[in-house]
Amino acid sequence: MLTKIIQFSIKNKLIIGLFTLLLIGFGVFSLTQLSIGAVPDVTNNQVQVITTSRNLSTQDMEQFITYPVELEMANLPGVKEIRSVSKFGLSVVTIVFEENLGTYLPRQLIAEKIQSAAENIPEGFGTPQMGPITTGLGEIYQYILDVKPAFKDKYSITELRTIQDWIVKRQLSGIPGVVEVNTWGGRLKQYEVAINTNKLNAMNITAQEVFTALEKNNSISGGGYIERENQAYFIRGEGLASSLEDIGNIVVKSENGFPIYVKDIAKVQFGSAPRFGAITGNGEGEKILGQVMMLKNGNSNQVIQAVKERVANISESLPEGVYINPVLDRSVLIGKTTFTVAENLILGVLIVIFVVVLLLGNLRSGLVVASVIPLSLLFTLSLMYLFGVDANLMSLGAIDFGIIIDGAVIIVEFVAFQISKNATKLNAFSSEEKQLAKDELTVKSASKMMNSAIFGQLIILIVFIPILSLSGVEGKMFKPMALTFSFALIGAMVLCFTYVPVAASLFLKPIKTSKRNISVRIMAFLNRFYEPIIRWALGAKKLVLGIAVLILASTIYLFTTMGGEFVPTLDEGDFVIQPVLKTGTSLKNTIEITTQIEKILTEKFPEVDQIVSRIGAAEVPTDPMSMEESDIIITLKPKKEWVSATSKNELAEKFKEALAIIPGMEVEFTQPIEMRFNELITGVRADIAIKIFGEDLEVLNKTANEIKSLAENVEGADDITVEKVVGLPEMNVNFNRAKIARYGLNIEDLNEMIAMGFAGKSLGSIFEGEKRFDLVVRLDENNRRDLSNLQNLYVDTPSGEKVPLRELAEIKYTKGAAKISRDDTKRRIVVGINVRSRDLQSVVDDVQKLIDENINLPVGYTIDYGGQFENLQSAKTRLLFAVPVALLLIFFLLYFAFNSIKEALMIYSAIPLAAVGGVLLLWLRDMPFSISAGVGFIALFGIAVLNGIVLIEHFKELKKEGMKDKTELIVQGAKDRLRAVLLTASAAALGFLPMAISTNAGAEVQRPLATVVIGGLVTATLLTLLVLPVLYSIFDSDKKRIKLRKSKQKTLPMVLVISLLGFSGLAQQNPKTLEDFQQMALENNACLKAASLQKEEANALIGSAFSFDKTTVFYEFDENNLASNNEPLEVFGVQQGFLFPTVYFAERNVNKRQFEIQNSQYELQKRKTEGTVAAAYYQFQFEKNREAVYKRLDSLYQNFAHAAQRRFELGETNY
Questions:
Q1: Boundaries of every domain in the chain
Q2: All residues at 6 or more sequence positions from 725 whose CB lies less than 8 Å from its CB, including other chains
Q3: Of 707, 1014, 978, 690, whose CA–CA distance to 834 is shortest?
Q4: Cβ within 8 Å of residue 819, ≥6 positions away
Q5: What is the DSSP track for 419-452?
Q6: What are the Cα distances from residue 559, in Å, to 845, 878, 934?
Q7: How many other β-carbons are positioned within 10 Å of the β-carbon of residue 816?
């Protein structure tokens, strides 16, 4: 099949050329269309249900909102996990679905359930809404609406917030791929009626009268239309208030003919809604932040580019002095990681080309091989576009073109050798004859090496299949890598039997290899060095194998002592500091602290470019934080401008030291994407999450603090924090139902009065053109400051009396729940630990040991470990399946290739010693085992067997050619294939070298994978060149034949049957029948195999009857013949020769008859083999029975002899 494709390619070079041009064109087009990102989006398939009810406590949010929503969502199909967070005024329920449900089906299911959940939530407590369709990579662009220094006093944060909401946000929202523009910080403008309670009481006006007056005097109406003089006049009643003056002049009531206006009892002014979040920046105070969120599965590069273009247009329409200041631009990280990938690929390609040209010793051969690299890359990009695989650090970064071109190297090296070998003969031909001879030689050579070339790459391709079985975070991380590597291998294989033979035939010249050629000199030196070593190894087989086993055992022990982590942390180039403040810290105090932090860091550290602090919750609270919680995002300058530190860990320690002057504050360090991924995937922001489950928040808090104290003693455990679940300051109003009943009141009216007085009550809207603002009534600022204001809040009774709230309820300060987190409907608290300067697995092991020894949990309380550690455990479980499957697939393929367990095991032995190199190099570079390294091992196992296949095939070939001396055969074969072995191994290893030593952004994730492959290939090459020849010399020895008194023809089947029966006897189970031995003989008989191959060849020739001659393209120019336009005749044409159709059918019939003859011969040989084995089997059974008889007779004689001896000893006889 492959030979036919090669023949077709050589005969139809034009078609292959057009195919190559098509590949180049489509590949370039695909590159322009690919979605380019920094890292794979590993966010699970989740939907957030968000409910806001700004007046409800944490416990009430859990009881009345969170629980009903969880209950409804738990019954949905495909739900894997439900998490929830309840805080003061906010409930966020996260529902994680199976990945195969897609993005929109879960949202449709939840939309249906939200309706029934809302029916179970009391009226006025809020309505559940789904969060935006975005992921952990969704926050692609963040900006501050800033003011130039000369205009600082011109704009307040309320005015800037209005500009953000009504100018910037509205224009950004229409961009394709943008799902949400979230506003954070500032003050939301309102028209406020601030009631003075003293005036209200003095004028005997109730709050309800104020509400009614405002509602009835701020409305519009229509009255249909009137027809007059052939015109229709539509009636419109304009009663909307449009200014503070209009509101102030609304009459509340008349007293003795004198109107009492709103302005007489209240201050009418511009106010703002109660705030639960804020933004500060660069130590300059409060700012306004905009977050642009990308639609899930969007094209990051395209969306960011569109956002930037729109921002440039918006900037022109902003008020004077106001500008948009980007603070987080995802395209910067994408640019850094893309540069890392491009640099590694380019350097890898250049190194591979250099190695190939150097060892091949032929520039043309090297360029033919090198040309496969860009073509296979374009093939990969084309399939990535067709299959929707994003281009990022993992998908493109792990491609090693040294591995990809292995097949091309094997083919081109052998074709070049054959052309050079036949140079004298080829140079004697004319130009056309020479090309035909080169074509024929190329077909023959490429066909001969195609099995080794394609089969080796097929093994690498197959071992990537188990990686595709990975799921969860590790699946989303490494599946793109497996897919793109597979695409590149498929592309290289296709090119190997189409483009490569054509290019080799056209560009390789029949030139004798000069002895002064650098390649020849290098290989001569290496052979002089290698030959005595291989001869020594063959003479000291036990020592060589003993050393190999000892090294393997030592490495296994070393591997058990290595730590583990999920994946190396990607250096995003920025920091996030999370200050941990006292529960219940006011928003004003948090703003002051973050501003102080910003000033300290910007003044002391020139590495800091910008700092933005996000406090509390945004308008769309996808990231629910309390007012004492904040994320301080620090954008750093390029590392070459750093002066205070040389690494991020060192800089983090210096930041921590500088911030130690702020009392009562702990800090955690993380990165923007890492923080968001951790929170969305596991519900926790830390690397390690120790989750304690139970009912009582106080018990949970006490246990968590005990665990924190223990964890502080563990090396590598840093930023240890306990989730704040208790201690929220509250003013508790405990109603006296008896007194309320005495005054004829009800609790609902009292709660409404409290809510109006302090939170405010909306009574409509005021329009300023298209802008819309709430009209809100609340107590003035002087009457809502402390506990006494709440106690002195007067309530109107039905009888017209005014009663202070203190007469109706007990009001006092208390501590309540600050936050209630639930996993799968169970309450829990988290102790978060970030890991620094140590691996994740070791830290967890130490912490877990301390907890087991020192913590006694109450009945019903449990501890679980989550965060990145949870991902690590899940991935390890998957790898325990994926690695054995990969190993089994390799063995099966080797067995099918060689049809010999012995030879398959010899080549398979490359795998353990390849693993030795991977483990040793990880240990030498002080790298823990990670999932990235695990995937590297899977890839390494496939690569490690390639050179073994080439070497064993050549040994067999030399044996067929008649070499008898086994030692000389092995030495000669190893020397012959030394160039190919070194070429493939060095190209593959050095192709990964830039990735292994790179320090650019994103290299951390690739480094373990590259390290494993490089180290493994070094030891795998040593195995191939030393241990494998030793194993071949041992296991390929001729077996001693057993001489039987039968004809010479029966010797082989008898030995076969005896050996098989002997093995069966050792096993002592499942004895073999005659049919079993006949089947074994049929599978292993050389004559039968030869007959089978001849039959297959004849069958294959049936279809070859329809093979056509090669297509030719010609051009003719004849000055003597004129065309119709009186110009010399020019003729372009394509020529294809055909025979008369009956000739093809006749040739097909001949081939078919030949196949029938070969099939008959095969069946004859099969029957002959079965008969021979049957005769040998029965002869063996006969001999076996005879042996049993002799043994029985011998036993009887022994008994007689023993009895006679005893009689002699007893004196019964004297002989």
A1: 189-221+234-272+729-817, 337-566+874-1035, 576-728+819-866, 1048-1209
A2: 697, 700, 701, 817, 818, 819, 820, 821, 829
A3: 690
A4: 58, 85, 86, 87, 626, 723, 724, 725
A5: HHHTHHHHHTS-HHHHHHHHHHHHHHHHHHHHHH
A6: 16, 19, 12
A7: 18
Q: What is the 3-state secondary structure (H, E, C) of 900-930?
A: CHHHHHHHHCHHHHHHHHHHHHHHHCCCCEE
Which whole-number Å values give the CA distances from 379 to 19, 346, 502, in the listed order? 11, 17, 18
CA distance 25 to 797: 83
Under a CB-based contact definition with an 8 Å cutoff, are residues 32 and 83 in contact?
Answer: no
3-state secondary structure of 296: coil
Question: What residue type is 942 in one-letter code?
Answer: G
Tens digit of each residue's pLDDT (9 = 90 or more) over 657-678:
999 898 888 888 888 877 877 7
Give the closest residue to 680 by CA, choosing from 53, 63, 4, 85: 85
Summarize pLDDT for 858-897 with one digit per residue, the tens: 888 999 888 777 777 777 777 777 778 878 888 888 887 7
Q: What is the DSSP letter of 1126?
A: S
Q: What does CATH list as the number for 189-221+234-272+729-817?
A: 3.30.2090.10
CATH architecture label of 576-728+819-866: 2-Layer Sandwich (3.30)
Burial class (CB in 10 A: 0-12, 13-18, 19+), 596: middle
Q: Which two tokens stand for residue 340?
A: 């890392």
Query: For residues 1014 and 993, is the Cβ–Cβ distance under 8 A?
Result: yes
Measured CA to CA, the distance from residue 1188 to residue 1204 in angstroms comes to: 24
| Residue pair 188/243 in contact by the 8 Å Cβ criterion | no
- Please give the sequence-ordered ranges of beta strands (E in DSSP) within 479-562, or none if there are none: none
CB atoms within 10 A of CB 35: 18
**CA–CA dist 748, 55 (Å, integer):** 14
Claim: this prediction has a pTM higher than 0.85: no
The backbone torsions φ and ψ at residue 831, rounded to the nearest 5 degrees and listed phi first, read -100, 115
Out of 1.10.150.530, 1.20.1640.10, 3.40.720.10, 3.40.50.970, which CATH number does the structure's domain 337-566+874-1035 have?
Answer: 1.20.1640.10
E-strand ranges in 72-138 read: 79-87, 90-97, 129-130
Token pair of 715 as six digits: 């090396």
What is the C-alpha to C-alpha distance for residues 107 and 133, in angstroms, rounded to an integer? Answer: 9
Q: 900-912: per-residue pLDDT in tens?
A: 888 888 888 888 8
Q: Report the DSSP beta bridge partners of residue 277.
A: 616
